[in-house]
Automatic annotation (TrEMBL):
It comes from Pseudoalteromonas holothuriae. Pfam families: RimK. Its EC number is 6.3.2.3. The gene is gshB_1. Keywords: ATP-binding, Ligase, Manganese, Nucleotide-binding. This is Glutathione synthetase. One of its GO terms (molecular function) is metal ion binding.
Length: 311
């Protein structure tokens, strides 16, 4: 039997290149060959094959797509097609589901997992939006359903603020508006990383002074934080419901309702940067080991299925 072959597209900034090198080395120790730098943006598809940098992607035993910052619509389109032929991490169905904030909240709610109260309204349903802001106590948060890093997220205080925002929103090509109740919390959150159903790390994030968004790209800062077991269990359950192999679950504590709430589920949670590791956020090796185990298990399963088909 030939050695398993795994393709990788990994982010390089923030220590990502060093993480990739460790991942490649650890997989090599298990007899798994790797090809890195497989950005599907550079690929083309023809005759039933996707060719990227000289590699026929369908011949791989698995593909790890781990680069949020450089995703393009073309890359995602091919990612979806590839996921129908070989194992991808994450699998594309779960990935695309978790990338949509409304679909994520809707599914988690249907499984009894607390999220922010939400509304999805047609762009012409102004009455529905105004009803939402009244039902949510006069404060809501408008979110693009497919955004990340806090980009495009707007806090709306009262109907007057909503009235001022509506002319701008009406000029966009949005077909609907997704809004959430603004949750009373202490301006900190938990980021809990889950790999193959296990918690592999946690840290806290804090919003900057005079702001409420904890996203690092919005000016938030990180700090060492021990996870509450209730938060861990909730993160693992949310990841399982969504069907993700790898996830970073953002949770906050709702002071009004006295419960943890899943705010967002990230499909490509970053490893700790070298600067964050100096602060004591040191889960990288645990997470890396878990991802190596996951990839190993994934390729073994694929090769076993292939052997059965051949037999």
């Amino acid at each position: 039997m030939t050695a398993p072959h795994v393709g990788i597209w990994m982010y390089e900034n923030g220590g990502g290149k060093a993480i990739e090198q460790k991942l490649v080395h650890a997989l090599a120790e298990r007899g798994i060959e790797t090809t890195t730098g497989l950005n599907l943006r550079d690929a083309r598809a023809q005759d039933g094959q996707i060719l990227c940098n000289g590699i026929v992607m369908e011949h791989l035993d698995a593909f790890l797509s781990y680069n949020a910052g450089q995703q393009t619509q073309y890359q995602l389109y091919l990612y979806q097609a590839l996921s129908e032929s070989i194992p991808t991490l994450n699998n594309f169905h779960a990935f695309s589901l978790a990338e949509d904030k409304f679909r994520t909240s809707h599914l988690l709610n249907s499984h009894g997992i607390a999220t922010a109260d939400y509304r999805l309204c047609h762009k012409n349903d102004i009455a529905g939006l105004k009803a939402a802001i009244r039902d949510f106590g006069g404060k809501l948060v408008y979110k693009p359903t497919d955004g990340w890093g806090g980009v495009g997220v707007v806090k709306i205080d009262g109907e007057h603020a909503l009235d001022m925002l509506l002319p701008f929103l009406s000029r966009t090509d949005l077909r609907y508006f997704y809004v959430e109740r603004f949750i009373d919390y202490d301006n900190t959150d938990y980021r809990i990383d889950v790999v193959d159903g296990q918690c592999v790390g946690c840290y806290g994030r804090k919003a900057p002074k005079d702001d409420w968004k904890t996203n690092i790209t919005s000016g938030g800062s990180v700090f060492v934080r021990e996870p509450d077991q209730e938060a861990i269990d909730l993160a693992i359950k949310a990841t399982k419901v969504l069907g993700l192999e790898i996830a970073g679950v953002d949770l906050i504590y709702d002071r009004q309702h006295k419960q943890f709430v899943v705010l967002e589920v990230n499909t490509i949670p970053a490893f700790a940067t070298p600067e964050q590791e100096q602060l004591g956020i040191n889960f990288n090796q645990v997470k890396l080991d878990a991802m190596v185990d996951l990839i190993d298990k994934t390729v073994q399963k694929k090769q076993a299925l292939h052997s059965i088909k051949v037999a």
